[in-house]
Amino acid sequence: MKKKGKFLKEEPQKSEKPKKNGNPMKVTAIVLSSLAAVLVLAAVGVGIFVWYSGSVRGAMFAARGSVSDTIPQSAATPTDASETQARIDADWIDEQGNAYNYRNDVISILFMGIDYMGDEKNWFYATESNGGNADVIGLVILDTRTFDFSMLYIPRDTMADVIAMDASGQYLDTVYTNISTAHSYGDGKDLSCRLTTDAVSRLLYGAPVSRYVALDYDALYTLNDLIGGLTITFDDDYTEIHSTFTKGSTVTLNRWYMDKFITYRSETDLEGAYKRGMRSMAVMKALFNQCKGKIVADPAVALEYYNGLKDYITTDLDLTEITYLARNMGKMYFTSDTIVRLPGETVMGERYAEFYPDESWLHDFVVEKFCVPAG
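User: That's the sequence. What structure does it adopt?
Assistant: Structure tokens below.
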């Protein structure tokens, strides 16, 4: 098992604040990461109108500074003289003693759907907690050799080590809590995204998260209008949400129906948030494929999408990286197999549901997707 951070409910001494999971003020925000495909659409919008010449990504997606670099670090463990240089230089040595390096031909992009909390009862003492929760989290892992990609869906209730900041952006503590709250300890923009990126990397044993994209809930209505309504084929029975949402049926969702499909959550179902997130993933797949079809038919449509959505997106992707993704979009295929469900167990905590991932599965997933043996 990984070493966990402190539980804020048992500590802290610096500022007492209860562990929070964020009670969404308007669950429409959850749909945001279902719009994760918008990144690629935005990439096409820019890429079509910006000429970029180059065969490989080169220095693009290079590592950037982590918020973890700014917090106090424990003293380094002296190097064992018997260790090989390959092991000393390894990016990660797991608990079994296996040494790995991270692949340089893999790009990972974190997508977040943000729920902004306006209720002051969710702000705790000196802690900056108004950046909104990341209610839907999906990590795209792209192999640049083949352009195959996976999206790891990380439930909002996943327990993880989260960096807590005070109102001035200074480090307070590392808290073991729901991963969705990482975004709230920030400014609602870059800092919040970097805190969430850090929490996801910690969850994945330190695997690098190259870039991030966050969307707020107003993007939902804008994109649905732009594409003339989302057409989706239901892969399961959702008649508890609406009588027409039967398995195998194909419907076009207007604003109201899309919101209802994704934001519905049974108050008595412990895994309600998990199921809601998976519906967001299904919508994401449908959005990606529908928008991609429109862009292939009329490339100018991509710019319309980009201009309509750019005000709702926070990202650290630069223009060159966006263009690179745009030029290779045709090689990417989003199928049902693209979405990877993080296995684990959901239990009821003191106030909110808590999801504990299967760490053995997670270890093997990180090795498969990110690593090569060191040495």
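Residues 28 and 263 are 5 Å apart (CA to CA).
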